[in-house]
Write a structure and sequence with these properties.
Blueprint: H1 18-30, H2 50-58, H3 63-87, H4 99-129, H5 135-141, H6 146-164, H7 178-204, H8 207-214, H9 217-229, H10 235-253, H11 265-294, H12 302-326, H13 333-339, H14 343-371, H15 374-383, H16 385-396, H17 402-433
Helix pairs in contact: 1-3, 1-4, 2-16, 3-4, 3-6, 3-14, 4-14, 4-16, 5-7, 5-12, 6-12, 7-11, 7-12, 8-10, 8-16, 9-10, 9-11, 9-15, 10-17, 11-14, 11-15, 12-14, 14-15, 15-17
């Protein structure tokens, strides 16, 4: 089983950069048939402790975040190089991804997913707290970082073109077919609608509350995964789904005491139900992506996964741009920037950081689906919610009452239950094969 031997401990600390360096070394160990190059001594950036994250965000100093994102881009390029070496000429044919490649891809996408899950809601909430009012703008920012994927694909193409050399077959620029393009476009439009629902919910709810509500997404992912891709369940996975949904239900029963200042009860419940709607919709999108992979009629390489993700993000962005035009939010952006509490420069930095962080989330989510399953992707998203809750309490000084503590314990319990079940299944499979 290719999931054996994977350590998820670095995922609990997405702000530390040491896992990135160790992963780079892991990739170089798995690469075969390539010439060894001299390693340059790169000085690792210092770790960002939790009590400094607040000052980092409030002062608008997001250069550390950009540094981490640059490392993620470097890792994606490395993975594409590894895939090119294991799939033959052009990176799109041959025997597909090996087990070792899937292990590395899973770790890389888990890191991207952890970064997006933990930081995305915080940066998006910062936009509203500092004076931002455009719901369609914030929704479009969640997928506006698709050029980031284009840069990674360009780096992969240039590498494949250099390593292929002269030959009878030219290096392919793209591997996506029209059939997959249309499927990705439809999924992108659904993602755009989901982004709008989620952004609307975040505009009314505290980060810690909206993050715990999103945990209910796992239940909908499980149901749709069973209906669309015939996902098999164990007692541990069912227990995890039940506990994570129970945590969201605890918050719903104590909703009235968690309103923000100057917010009506009607606005709070509107944000609550729109966030639940976002959880339902994305719970359908993840299994639909897995179904698309299974019906692709071609090798689903990581390059193809990235191309499909770029198409999905492009159409999701176009969906929200249309909403921005009809609601005249584009015309109000200069005025909004001038009135932003962090200034015009801080306004631009928040927008850029939001786009890049959320693109890491979506790339990581579809990557985990391609290397694992839609249910695993949903479990990981729910797993990183406690990190977001803790950071929200420290950064934005949000209240953390008894109901949130209970929901947090239930989320951690569900996480342990799921991965203990996976451990038991892996151990049993290994024993049977022997």
């Amino acid at each position: 089983d290719w999931t054996s031997g994977i350590s998820f401990s670095p995922l609990l600390f997405p702000f530390r950069t040491s896992p990135l360096i160790s992963l780079d070394q892991t990739i170089s160990l798995h690469s075969t048939g390539t010439k060894k190059k001299k390693k340059k001594n790169h000085q690792s950036p210092p770790s960002v402790s939790l009590h400094r994250v607040s000052a980092l965000v409030e002062d608008g100093c997001l250069h550390r975040l950009c540094y981490a994102l640059r490392h993620c881009l470097h890792l994606i390029r490395k993975v594409m190089e590894l895939e090119s070496n294991t799939t033959g000429r052009g990176g799109g044919g041959g025997r597909g991804m090996s087990k070792s490649t899937k292990k590395v891809l899973l770790i890389v996408n888990c890191i991207l997913l952890s970064l997006g899950s933990a930081c995305g809601p915080l940066v998006l909430r910062l936009y509203f707290l500092k004076g931002g009012k455009g719901v369609w703008i914030s929704a479009g920012l969640e997928t506006a970082g698709w050029p980031f994927v284009l840069v990674a694909l360009l780096a992969s193409y240039l590498y494949r073109r250099r390593t292929d050399g002269p030959g009878p077959e030219p290096t392919k620029v793209s591997f996506i077919t029209w059939r997959l393009f249309l499927a990705s476009a439809v999924l992108g439009l659904l993602t755009g609608l989901d982004d709008y629902l989620y952004a609307s919910g975040v505009s009314y709810l505290p980060v810690s509350t909206s993050s715990l509500i999103i945990a209910s997404q796992l239940a909908f992912t499980a149901v749709f995964a069973f209906l669309l891709v015939k996902q098999k369940f164990t007692a541990f996975s069912v227990n995890a789904v039940f506990l994570l949904c129970l945590g969201a239900g605890v918050l719903a029963m104590h909703a009235s005491g968690d309103k923000l200042a100057n917010e009506t009860k009607g606005q709070y419940f509107m944000g609550f139900f729109m966030t639940v709607g976002a959880a339902v919709l994305y719970g359908f999108v993840l299994p639909a992506i897995e179904l698309t992979y299974s019906k692709a009629r071609q090798n689903v390489t990581y390059t193809l996964v990235m191309e499909m993700q770029m198409v999905m993000s492009l159409f999701a962005t176009l969906f929200n741009v249309v909403g921005m035009i009809f609601h005249h939010e584009i015309q109000t952006m200069p005025k909004e920037a001038s009135e932003f509490e962090l200034g015009k420069v801080g306004y631009c930095m928040v927008l850029i950081a939001t786009a890049l962080v959320w693109q890491c989330f979506f790339v990581g989510a579809v990557g985990v689906v391609s290397c694992g399953s839609s249910l695993l992707s949903g479990v990981l998203i729910a797993t990183f919610l406690p990190v977001t809750e803790i950071l929200a309490v420290f950064i934005y000084h949000e209240p953390f009452g008894a109901e949130k503590a209970i929901a947090l314990v239930l989320s951690i319990w569900g996480f342990i239950s799921y991965f203990y079940g996976e451990y038991k299944h892996t151990k049993k499979s290994t024993h049977t094969s022997e």
